[in-house]
Amino acid sequence: MGMGLLPQYRGQGYGQRLAEATVEAAFKVGMERIELEVFASNLPAIRLYEKLGFQHEGLKRRFRKLDGAYDDNVMMALFSASA
Fold this sequence. Notes:
There is one protein chain. Helix content is 29%, strand content 36%. The two termini are 22 Å apart. It has a domain at 31-83: Aminopeptidase (3-Layer(aba) Sandwich), CATH 3.40.630.30. By secondary structure, the protein is an alpha+beta fold. The chain contains 2 helices and 3 strands; from the N terminus they run αβαββ.
């Protein structure tokens, strides 16, 4: 599953509410671990995921090349309290 916000909706709390609802729903149905990957250049998203309790687990170096520039991909995970 992927998620993102159009530029005009960023910075208004929509992403946080969407992520919180997604995490809550996943744990409610019994998932014990949630994984995600995010481009290393997407610092606002990384800060949000850290705020929600996600931990860094790894890095895929030079994951994407766009307009001649490379970007890494950060792997993160969150465990349920019951896991």
